[in-house]
Amino acid sequence: MIIDDDRGFCKCISNIINKYHLGVIAASCSDGLEAESLIHKCRPDIVIIDLLLPGQSGIELTKKLAVSNSQISCIMISACSNTSIIEQAYLSGVDFYLQKPVNVLEFTTAVSTVIKSKASTGC
After folding, report:
1. Which CATH number fits domain 2-112: 3.40.50.300, 3.10.450.50, 3.40.50.2300, 1.10.10.10?
2. Edge-to-edge strand order for the sheet containing 46-50?
3. Three-state SS string across 110-121, please?
């Protein structure tokens, strides 16, 4: 699932996922509160999430996901390079924090790593 308020970025990530056969996109949305509801409905394995979202931040949403469903992996992608924000993101439960503009190799490696981790733990 892709959660970002920039439709162009969502399309870019979608294209990368399709081109490199990284999985199926269950849903996408642009609002943190809408995403929370959609995640509970769709039950994605991996959530690609922006830091700054309308409704609630990516960090707030990730914290809620960590409490409610520890099997969902989160990859946060943001233009923010503030180290304390990045630390907060990791403490909230993200598996990877990547910087915008997205580096395709970095992104595909992060997604592949999460997929392999899920396969090895049987999730």
Report:
1. 3.40.50.2300
2. 28-29, 2-3, 46-50, 73-78, 96-99
3. HHHHHHHHHHHH
d(CA 17, CA 56): 25
Give residue 100's pLDDT band: very low, low, confident or very high (50, 70, 90): very high
The contacts of residue 28 (CB under 8 Å, 6+ apart) are 1, 2, 3, 4, 10, 14
List of residues 6+ apart from 55 with CB closer than 8 A: 31, 32, 33, 34, 35
Residues in the chain: 123
Per-residue pLDDT, averaged over 52-69, amounts to: 92
Residue type at position 80: C
**0.85 exceeded by the pTM?**
yes
